What does this fold into?
Amino acid sequence: MSTITSPKSLFAKLKNPLRRTKGPELDPVDGAGTIFIHTDADDSVDRAAASPMSPISPSSTVLMGACYDASLSLLPVDAVNPKDSIAAKEAHESLGTCAICLDSLDEAAISTLQCCHTFHADCISGLETYGIANVCPLCRAKLSPGHGANFEKACRKYFRVARAVKHGRVTWGLLSQEQRHECASAERLWREAADNGFIRAQFNLGVILENGHGVERNDPEAFAWYLSAADKGFASAQCNLAAMLKAGRGVDRADDVKAVSWFEKAAQQGSAEAQCNLAIMYEQGRGVERNEEEALRWYELAASQDSAEALYCLGEMKRDGHGTSQDSEEAVMLFQKAAELGHTGAEYALGSLYETLNDGAAHDSEAVRLFTSAARKGHLESTFSLGLCYLTGRGTEVNAAKAAKLFRQAAERGQAKAQNNLAYLLLQGQGTFANVSEAAAWYREAAEQGHIDAQCNLGLLHEQGLGVPQSDSEAARWLSAAAECGDATAQYNMGILVERGRGGLEQSFSGAYEWFRKAANQGDAEAQCALGKILRTGRGSVSADYPMAREWYRRAAEQGLAKAQYNLGGMLCNGIGGAEDCAGALVWFRRAAQQGYPGATKHIQAIERTLMLASMPSIDANAHAEEESPPPPPPLSPSTPLPTTATLETKRSVEL
It folds into this structure.
């Protein structure tokens, strides 16, 4: 017997892991515009603009471009007009305020440039965050590049390697000797700049150390560099620092409260990634009291910056009515916008939403298009759903071979339900060559992940010795695991094993009765029939109960189970458990006979003869004494066991 999971069950809201700032940004190079780079995460292109409100770029990229830093080397003395220097110095000394923040210069550490203009050191360092050109903020005197030049040189070295990785020519774990040398050189140059307080160099070091890009992965050191840049107000570093705190990386233990604090600091600066992460923390109640309305507000702020992740999460909240009224139409629009930005989760959600509409082939084919797009980008759920479309022919032509291929792709990535479905196709030889041993192996992979259908099927394969050694104990082990999780097929089969005392289980009719009852209450026809048998005959400590036996036989018979139809016919014919009903018995015997059930035809003939004789007019016995009526067929005695087969029920379902 097989169970089918409705496609709608796949439309459950998928909780996403925290989205993090996706790494080093790109910076305008000497006013020449923004450099673009592809990400490892998806096919969209992210960029960082000079504005603090711009979205954060992906973690596979690094900040590039000239920017001002408080520690830059000063220009030679002859590069500045001495008269201008003296005048500027006198003006600043008399004014006593920082021309950037307009606060007193006495309140914090100061930094005097080569041109003699003096500012707060933190203000000068802060200019770097906003991509200010490498000049004095007052007189625009060009400053020596110093560490800024080293920073750009390191970025160019790293960029050449990152580009090769992006285009699939190499992986970070298999770099050539030359590429490793380039990365080592970039790391050295960034360290020189970072040690002198260059914020973006600190951030980039954090990224490559956290991800192990061309260097040995080192979470504690990455955390330290993020913290150094975050303390100076760099939003990207604050977001990544928060993500590490949330995940417990680079620290002794996770700290959701501190993570929220850093997410909020970056979010207040307009970081869309931080706003989205902060929304997730509010939605999940991590490090802060759960507040769906506040989560909605932060999602909306991030979505207003075209954050694909925020649009997707906002669409989920609109779809499910969390923190706002349910609005499927707006959810569709949000998913569409996120999908246009290349968000694979949104493509999957939109495709799943179209599938649930059931309003024609147009939406089904659009769902297939969306699943295909997301699957090509490696989205696991979309790969599985596309396989189901090809298997069932929904939105496309039936193609079991493509379905098997897609299930295999998802199975090899560890998805349990894909492993279960691939095992089914291998067992049936559908879309692929039949291979019982491989099917058993995939069932085991899924079963060990707790997939209930796979546990049941693996147990049945062990009981029958198909693709695995025959083992009643292994059968009992896996069937018990699935039965305890409420699987009706496994519960029925456990009842059979307990009834017979197999698999190291103590024989117990009362124990079997309990398993049959659990499965029968879930509508399992085989279990209903088995329950009827125990109640009709009375086994062990279970007393006979003819009315209930008749009722369970009826429930199974109405589901089309031939042996239940036959047994119900026998009880009706003999008036067992209720009034005698030969006409009703005839109906059920005929249904059983249509399915080829042995013995049903014989009883049909006997009942028809009885009914025919009963309908004949009465005859004078004295006038025809020499004629005797044929005796009626012998009744079926309650003590005569009715044929019932009780074999382990196989389960070969594909999860839809």
